Amino acid sequence: MLAKLARELPEGDGLFYEPKWDGFRCIVFRDGDEVVLGSRNEKPLTRYFPELVGSLLANVPDRCVLDGEIVIAGAAGLEFDALQQRIHPAASRIELLSRTTPASFVAFDLLALDDSDLQAEPYSARRRALEKALEPARPPIHLTPVTTSPDVARDWFSRFEGAGLDGVMVKAGHLRYQPDKRVMLKVKHGRTADCVVGGFRWHKEGGVVGSLLLGLFDDEGVLHHVGVASGFSAARRKEFVDALEPFRPDALKSHPWRAGEQPEGRVPGGQSRWSAGKDLSWEPLRPELVAEVSYDHLQGDRFRHATSFSRWRPERHPASCTYAQLDTPIPTELAEVFGTKS
Q1: Catalytic-residue membership of 278
Q2: 33 pLDDT exceeds 60?
Q3: d(C-alpha 227, C-alpha 284), whole Å
Q4: Catalytic: which of 20, 171, 186, 188?
Q5: Which domain holds residue 174?
Q6: What does the alpha-carbon distance between residue 79 and residue 98 come to, in Å, rounded to a whole number?
Q7: How far is CA 238 from each of CA 195, 214, 264, 278, rounded to the nearest angstrom?
Q8: Is there a domain that residue 334 lies in?
């Protein structure tokens, strides 16, 4: 089940608020002695977090399906960079990291218990069942806090940011579990979007990456070029060269933005009267890499200004990078002046 971005914390009867954890979304399947961890797109995660298997066997019901977040907590808060290091091909490296930077699992929903499929049950009932199921659980398995008080939620929103939690989740008590539907709200400190990286441009100094070309899928599955991420530090420009290299071979094969054919969606442009002589040629990448970027607002269906790169999202599938994740409310001042509703 997914969420849409919101600018303001909503209030109303029957709303539940949870901290928004900054980690890897994970579905836990347990059946007796077998535990399987998977991303919401069914990418396997079990091998990357072996230390969680034993903890889950000791702390969750014998047969259940849990929705939650894998996080790594450090002295100063959550450490997403340490989490990303776990997606590594070498088992020896993963085993070392599992001991030096162990992960935790934070549960926030219960989808099945014993023979019962709970997805059709309201969230309020699933929450009660989750609390009962995890009552005896001990770290590193955690139950996420929840409140029905907007004041408490606002306090979380302001205080928890420094610890790496990036907002508040809002769920209606009557909400049944709806996979792939954006029926929850996430109230975050800034607007972010997960985008497909379909290509890049070299920096004017040469040899390093100057900008990333971003794409989003529409409802028809067409990938549109929606803007760029730029303004990188010199160190990051160099790092990106290595990060992008695996996605360069055979990038033009079946690329949705390839030249010489009539593309269905918007593609990166070339020279224009606005480019002031800049070289706007670009290098294609296989559209398999996902980046989270922060942005201010949209103009039509593309980013108004260049976005800021936040992080790679190796656990996200490119097909999940759609316009549906974006929320573009009208600023309050404009709503009052023009009589429109955000």
Answers
A1: no
A2: yes
A3: 15
A4: 20
A5: 2-187
A6: 14
A7: 21, 19, 33, 21
A8: no
